[in-house]
TrEMBL record:
<keyword id="KW-1133">Transmembrane helix</keyword>
<dbReference type="InterPro" id="IPR009305">
    <property type="entry name" value="Mpo1-like"/>
</dbReference>
<dbReference type="GO" id="GO:0005783">
    <property type="term" value="C:endoplasmic reticulum"/>
</dbReference>
<dbReference type="Pfam" id="PF06127">
    <property type="entry name" value="Mpo1-like"/>
</dbReference>
<feature type="transmembrane region" description="Helical">
    <location>
        <begin position="27"/>
        <end position="49"/>
    </location>
</feature>
<keyword id="KW-0812">Transmembrane</keyword>
<feature type="transmembrane region" description="Helical">
    <location>
        <begin position="69"/>
        <end position="89"/>
    </location>
</feature>
<feature type="transmembrane region" description="Helical">
    <location>
        <begin position="96"/>
        <end position="116"/>
    </location>
</feature>
<dbReference type="GO" id="GO:0046521">
    <property type="term" value="P:sphingoid catabolic process"/>
</dbReference>
<protein>
    <recommendedName>
        <fullName>DUF962 domain-containing protein</fullName>
    </recommendedName>
</protein>
<keyword id="KW-0472">Membrane</keyword>
<dbReference type="GO" id="GO:0016020">
    <property type="term" value="C:membrane"/>
</dbReference>
Length: 135
């Protein structure tokens, strides 16, 4: 139980963040690039890994999954984990962070389905190189 309390201890996380991110420029960079990184990671996972369960086995209506664009994959599971974690850390701002997580998942799913595998990998390569230039 003590490990779980430590994982959800918001003050401990803020202290860790403050100790490692005291530089103003570093704080701004991290604030701006967390969500694009999450988006790009979900984009990569969508385009490289198959769905965990086929929607035909689940009996979903096609309109509910937007013709199969939204699917149960590892990106969705990670999105749910992060959303629950943020809500456990703080109710009000956690709900906002959870909405941002699901927005990234939905947006990356639609973009990956639209671009296709090859172009999605090129977009991810561009995003990754942009991250290294900001370091």
């Amino acid at each position: 139980m003590s490990n779980r309390v430590g994982l959800l201890d918001l003050e401990k996380h803020f202290a860790f963040y403050g100790a490692h991110h005291s530089n103003r420029v570093n704080i701004i960079i991290h604030t701006l690039f967390v969500w694009p990184n999450a988006f790009a990671t979900l984009l990569f996972l969508y385009s490289t890994l198959p769905p965990i369960l086929d929607r035909s086995y689940l009996g979903f209506i096609e309109a509910l999954t937007f013709d199969g664009v939204l699917r149960l994959d590892i990106g969705f599971i990670l999105t749910v984990i992060y959303a629950v974690f943020y809500i456990c850390l703080d109710k009000k701002s956690g709900v906002l962070a959870a909405l941002l997580c699901f927005s990234c998942w939905i947006g990356s799913s639609f973009l990956a389905a639209r671009l296709g595998h090859s172009l999605t990998l090129k977009v991810n390569s561009l995003q990754l190189s942009g991250n290294f230039m900001c370091i």
